């Protein structure tokens, strides 16, 4: 495992100090990715709360839903960029590269989605995610029209809003506690 002293502002718990569900998730991550994401290790300070977060996160981001994995990672990356969340920009930039097999677009979205040449559908989703992140009190029903115009239905819109909300939460936790992205993310899905 990585140097625990440098992945969070709080001490990272040892495997023997976390609930069994956390150690199982760590083992599954190690098997699937070859490493345990630092966000999994750092949030395990409160193991049961981490598992509750993970269950909802997993449902929104990793299960088949109304949006594609690439759509959800695009939203994650736009929100994370707007919030300047280092951990999430790096990790979700890697995930977007993986799902789209498009390094250039993922790198551009990580800096400024407006310069990424996104298709109309993805641009509408990114614009909505940005507004909801920056100005939630200003969001009105009319803000859904651009999403409908590019073909999103009610189920997709609901999932989009939930994903944006999840990443705003996750960004704040990651930034507030100084989570450091795993080194593996930097080279993931690069040619």
Automatic annotation (TrEMBL):
The keyword Oxidoreductase applies. SUPFAM superfamilies: AhpD-like. Residues 49-130 form the Carboxymuconolactone decarboxylase-like domain. Keywords: Oxidoreductase, Peroxidase. It comes from the Bacteria. GO terms for molecular function: peroxiredoxin activity. InterPro entries: AhpD-like, AhpD_core, CMD-like, Uncharacterised_peroxidase-rel. This is Uncharacterized peroxidase-related enzyme.
